[in-house]
Amino acid sequence: MLKLAELLHHKGLQVTFVIMEFVHKRFLESVGPHCLDGSPGFCFETIPIATSRDELIQSVETNFLAPFVDLLTKLLHPPTCIISDGLMSVFTIDAAQKVGVPVMLYWTVAACSFMGFYQTQYLIEKGLAPLKDESYLTNGYLHTVIDWVPGMEGIRLKDFPIAWTTDPMDEVLKFCTQLNQRSHRVSHHIFHTFDALEGSVIKALSSMYDHVYTIGPLQLLLDQKPETGSYSFPGYSY
């Protein structure tokens, strides 16, 4: 997300990069007290968040909408568009509707990873997930070949980037099942990939959504911009 934000700022857009409070704290501790000072036209804002994995998922689903909308309405420069991490769309889509601006989803994973997440609901409907018991982790079941995923025919169950659990109430599994439904509320999707790398999957995704954009590799694009005149995060970015 931060790499994309840097590119957009380099192209002349004013950027407000919203991160979670605990991420903000970790950046300051690991990179330095001034690493998030930003630059003209690029600033950081924070919203509160829990820290454990399960609390994070529950908090995103129930507690993030109100503080995010509150932040959007208090910004000195009101937003004209929200580019949201796709996994945060559980609240960012509703927030965009509340403040009356368009929203785009940026999927920081590869297109094939997104397609794998997208199939979670279908894996459940077909009785392939969750696992019947823990023996299915080692008895060869996960080597079962699947031939019905668009653009990814012939992959194995073990290749799906989902939580292979025996618990049908697993929080991560439930979160993934909502992904495909939620994603269709948005017309514009950006994927961190390029057509020559994942052409068949991009073609399949283009038949699923009105507008699909590929942008990558981001670091190569960043390497081409001048060192001065735009914001550059002083350390590892994501």
Task: Please tag this protein with its features.
238 residues, alpha/beta, 4-stranded parallel sheet, two-stranded parallel ribbon, 39% helix, globular
Overall structural class, as computed from helix and strand content, comes to: alpha/beta
Largest sheet: 4 strands, parallel
What share of the residues does DSSP label as strand, in percent? Answer: 5-15%
Low-pLDDT runs of 5+ residues are: none
Question: What's the average pLDDT?
Answer: 88
- What is the multimeric organization of the chains shown? single chain
Given the structure, what is the number of helices? 11
- Number of strand elements: 8
Task: Round the Cα radius of gyration to an integer and report it.
Answer: 19 Å
Our measurement of the CA-to-CA distance between the termini, rounded to an integer number of angstroms, reads 6 Å
CA-based shape: globular
Biggest sheet strand order reads 3-4-7-8
Write a compact overview of the structure shown.
The protein is α/β, with parallel strands linked by helices and 238 residues long.
Explain what the structure shows.
The protein is an alpha/beta fold and about 240 residues long. About 40% of the residues lie in helices and about 15% in strands. It has helices at about 1-10, 20-30, 55-60, 65-75, 90-100, 110-120, 120-125, 170-175, 180-185, 195-205, 220-225, and strands spanning about 15-20, 40-45, 80-85, 105, 145, 155, 190, 210-215. The strands form three sheets. Strands 3-4-7-8 form a four-stranded parallel β-sheet. It has a two-stranded parallel ribbon with strand order 1-2. Helix 2 links the parallel strand 1 and strand 2. The longest helix is centred in the last third of the chain and has 12 residues, at about 195-205. The model has no long low-confidence stretch (mean pLDDT about 90).
